[in-house]
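Glycogen synthase: structure, please.
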Amino acid sequence: MKILSIAAEVFPLIKTGGLADVAGALPSALSGHGCDVTTMLPGYPVVLKAIEAAGAKVEVLPLDDVLGGTARLLAVKLSGMKLLVLDMPELYDRLGGPYTDTAGHDYGDNWRRFAALSKAGAMVAQGAIDGYLPDIVHVHDWQAALTPVYLAASNRPRPKTVLTIHNLAFQGNYPSGIFPQLGLPAASWSIEGVEYYGNVGFLKGGLHACDVVTTVSPTYAKEIVTPGGGMGLDGLLLGRGSRLVGIVNGIDTTVWDPEADPAIAAPYSPADMKSRLHNKRALEGEFGLRRENGPIFSVVSRLTWQKGLDLVAEICDELVERGVRLVVVGSGEAIIEGTFQAAHSRHPDRVGVRIGYDETLSHRVQAGADAILIPSRFEPCGLTQLYGLRYGCIPVVAKVGGLADTVVDANYAAVSAKAATGVIFTSPERDSLLAAVDRTLELYEDAQVWRTMQAAAMKADVSWEKSAALYAGIYRDLTKE
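Here you go.
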């Protein structure tokens, strides 16, 4: 099967979050299930530089009139992937990130930048490239969600479409005044189209128009059809019935492999956990932490309310009182960043903080810390806990979304069965988080129980294998239709 995947970011070329990891790793996993994936993404400067630096052979394919602009597709094989890069300098040649400028403000024309990606994707899906017609178009999040809308509005034959929701909180809603510039027929301005409470809803339109909706964990699929979790789209999603499917994310276990990770101080395995101590000592040195045998807890995340990191920032003093050392890596809301930095000022050898995103540092943190705190208020899937499992960094997580689906709580039965892989607490609140920390510390004090948990975590299947098979099954069912 020929699959056209369309995403706004793809690891290792461009990444701001888990979407990039999924879009980068899933194609390889699908190849073992009879799927030939081509991934389409915008031609950001960093992507074009990567192509140039690799000296890869590039085929240039012109595209006529992409929302009134001039564009071309660059067809290239890079980082083990077949890519189509939408080269449109007027939209993507920017100094900032994929969505925001250097000051962190959203680009004012983001609606056009990603409508163009969707429009170009629809053109490719209907034969813009000679000899290439995909069987399935798989689009990711609101940035590519207009692709099914453009296809549905066309009178020409179209492939079946799958839309994956990575985070329902980001929907791509814009003022109605942009509608005439989207190149859609007047009929698309309706409740069955892109109209959403008087605005243009990119994700809303895609959810109506696509053939199957998937999201990134079974529990999240149940949460988003409720008023509390549906972010205003619960009615629409509930109406999709069996056409809404939750498939838990995996990770690239070749990139995240503690036995062969070049980013960490020393390789280790479930059978050789003594070597893991070298990584803990290296992490202490990197963050200036006091060297001792007590636990290191960690945070590697966007520092936002959604992730519950305001709760962790509030309890830093209580963590220190309990003998915990804390390592924080991430960026986000200024008040949360400031609270962590203030905690570092009060406890410079107990709380280490690094504001910003650093991919290789995140590997070193997972390899050296004993536990990772993920108190999310909602979490579609989460990848950080999967990295933690893979590296024996015990996840301490709220019971939401994919966190609930991927971590086995260390209750009495699970510990007795040697099946526990983490600590789950039910309410993302300050006192519940502290109670979970206390329970984690009790487990840590029993060295044999802790090592057993680490071994069980590292042996958990966090790969894409099972999930890729489920995606391939959806594709096959759609092609039969």
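Notes: The mean pLDDT is 97.
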